[in-house]
Structures are given as C-alpha cells and as structure tokens.
Design the sequence.
C-alpha cells in the first residue's frame, strides 16, 4: 500500500475516481475500514503491494477481464476464469519423467508422444518451465521453451520453440523413417500433422488428429510404407475428399483388420490342432513307458518257464507299433525288422529281455 494511505490521505484524483461507473464501482471498496482509499489499480495499472487493507484489484474481485480481453485479444496466459494450479518441484520432476524425449526418439516423433501425454492441459509459467529443465535434449528448443514468462500451455511453448529451431516442415519430414505395420504408418501420419501445425498458416487447430490429411501428406505416407500396401493405400484416399488425420487412421485400422483378421484366425486354428496332436503324442508316450516298465517288472519277478510264460502273455497283448518302439529302445537295428511278423518281433523282444 502506498504510504499516504495509512494516514487517511487520498491521492489527488481519488474524488473523481470514486465515482467511476465501470463494473468496479461496487466491488472496489476495501474491507478494512481503517483505510478509506479505494483501489485504483484497474485504471492506473498499479496493484496494492500490501495486504494490510485487504483490498484486491477490482478486475479480480468483480470477475471482469483485462482491457485487452474485452477488446477480443487472446491473452498469452490461460483464458479468463480458468484456474491455474502451480506445480511443486515434485510435480515438475514427474512431468519431466513423462515428457522427456527418449535417446532414440526423433524430434518429430517426440512431438506426437508429448501431445498424447500432455495435450494442452499442462499450463506452465516461465519459472515452472525453467524448473522443468531439458525435455527435448535440443539446446535451442529447450531455451525457447523457457523464454515466455506468462502462463501458457507446454504444447504451445514446444510448438513455438520447434518453429524457431527449424526452417520448414521438410526439416522435420527428413527425420521420418520407413514404416512396416499399420500402427507405425498411423504414427508417421500424425507426425506429418504436427509438422503442418508448426509451419502451416492454414491450420486452425493444435490437435494433430484434427489436421486435414492432404494429398501431399498421403503420398508421403505411401512412399514410406511397404510395397504390399501401396496399391490399397493409393485408392484409399481420394484427392477431392476432405478427411482429417483421425478419419484416415480409422480407415487404416479397418483395412488392417480386413486383411489380417482371417489370417490370424487360420493361425489360431492351426495352433489349436498342433496343441491337440502334441497332447496325443504325449499320451501315447506315457503308455509306451508304462508298457516298458510292465515288461521290466515281469523280467525281474519271473525266472525260467514262469518268466517265459509271463512274457508270452504280456508280449502277445502288445501292438506291433509298441513292439517296434520297445525293440528300438533296446538298441535293435530296426531296418532288419521291416516286413517281419509280429510274432518274430515278440520273440526277439523276449530274447533281449532274457539276455
């Protein structure tokens, strides 16, 4: 509060200002009755520097917007009526972790990543932007991001910084790599949209998904993609149609579902059949092992004629396929048994077990 207000003396123009008929007339009265002075900050641009009198600037108390806002100019900070929350150092560390560009990430890819993570919801003033530190790992971009002192969105800061760093959209397009999957193709298309937002004067949105997909953008996308997709993509976008990047992303995903859906279904069915065969083979293997153990038990239990009779009873019940496996397990050369009878194979099994 200026010193003369403590003694009850009003500034020379107080009498004329006390009768102002603007929206501050009823709200400019301070709550402290010790000081009779009224706030003149809305006209002189000076706000009280002390809170002893409890007076607030008239524009804040009455909800009125600054003169520039009334004239239709967009303020650099948030819109009137928005609540801007300050970030603690802990909050800023969390934002830095979420928004920092990865080492293998290009600037144009990082811009899409930043939009998906923050959008236009993260509002920072100059001090908070400086505390946020380096996000892009590009000195020029990081320095420009911290330049604006007034509160504005992080997305607005980054777009302005990138515009200062590069000369034209082609400088960003050069960072794009070939794509192999449809999702990678959608990522490339959204990267192009961000480049258009930064450098085109015809774009009225800061949302990459709402940027019109131009024929030039689409042809660039087709050239970056696999040859197998080129024919389908060439007829997917007509030059005379006006569609956004989001519209084309939906078309690309629908195309991917139509092309790869039946293939995936066939692969899943084949995998089910293979699993069934594997289960059946495992079951047969268990039965063979059980037969081997059973025959071994007979060999250990019996002796002489009793053992031979037991083997006869057990051997005659063994199918030829199992005899084949048992003989092979005993080290027999199975080439010599091609065309031999089951009885001969059973007899040989007896001999091997008896020996």
Sequence:
């Amino acid at each position: 509060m200026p010193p003369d207000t403590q003694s009850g003396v009003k500034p020379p123009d107080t009498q004329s200002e006390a009768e102002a008929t603007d929206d501050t007339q009823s709200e400019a009265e301070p709550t402290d009755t010790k000081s009779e002075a009224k706030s003149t900050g809305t006209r002189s641009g000076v706000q009280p520097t002390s809170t002893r009198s409890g007076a607030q600037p008239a524009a804040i108390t009455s909800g009125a917007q600054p003169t520039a806002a009334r004239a239709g100019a967009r303020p650099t900070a948030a819109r009137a009526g928005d609540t801007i929350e300050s970030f603690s150092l802990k909050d800023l560390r969390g934002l830095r972790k979420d928004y920092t560009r990865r080492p293998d990430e290009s600037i144009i890819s990082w811009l899409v990543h930043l939009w998906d993570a923050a959008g236009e919801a993260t509002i920072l003033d100059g001090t908070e932007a400086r505390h946020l530190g380096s996000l892009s790992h590009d000195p020029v971009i990081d320095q420009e991001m911290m330049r604006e002192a007034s509160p504005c969105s992080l997305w607005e800061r980054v777009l302005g910084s990138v515009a200062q760093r590069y000369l034209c959209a082609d400088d960003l397009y050069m960072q794009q790599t070939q794509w192999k999957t449809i999702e990678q193709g959608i990522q490339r298309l959204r990267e192009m949209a961000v480049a258009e937002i930064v450098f085109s004067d015809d774009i009225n949105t800061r949302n990459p998904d709402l940027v019109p997909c131009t024929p030039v953008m689409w042809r660039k996308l087709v050239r970056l993609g696999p040859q197998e997709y080129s024919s389908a993509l060439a007829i997917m976008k007509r030059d005379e149609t006006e569609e956004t990047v989001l519209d084309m992303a939906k078309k690309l995903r629908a195309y991917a579902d139509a092309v790869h859906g039946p293939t995936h279904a066939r692969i899943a069915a084949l995998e089910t059949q293979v699993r069934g065969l594997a289960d059946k083979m495992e079951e047969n293997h268990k039965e063979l092992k059980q037969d081997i153990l059973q025959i071994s038990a007979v060999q250990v239990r019996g002796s002489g004629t009793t053992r031979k009779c037991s083997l006869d009873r057990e051997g005659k019940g063994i199918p030829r396929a199992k005899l084949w496996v048992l003989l092979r397990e005993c080290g027999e050369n199975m080439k010599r048994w091609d065309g031999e009878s089951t009885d001969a194979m059973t007899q040989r099994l007896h001999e091997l077990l008896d020996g």
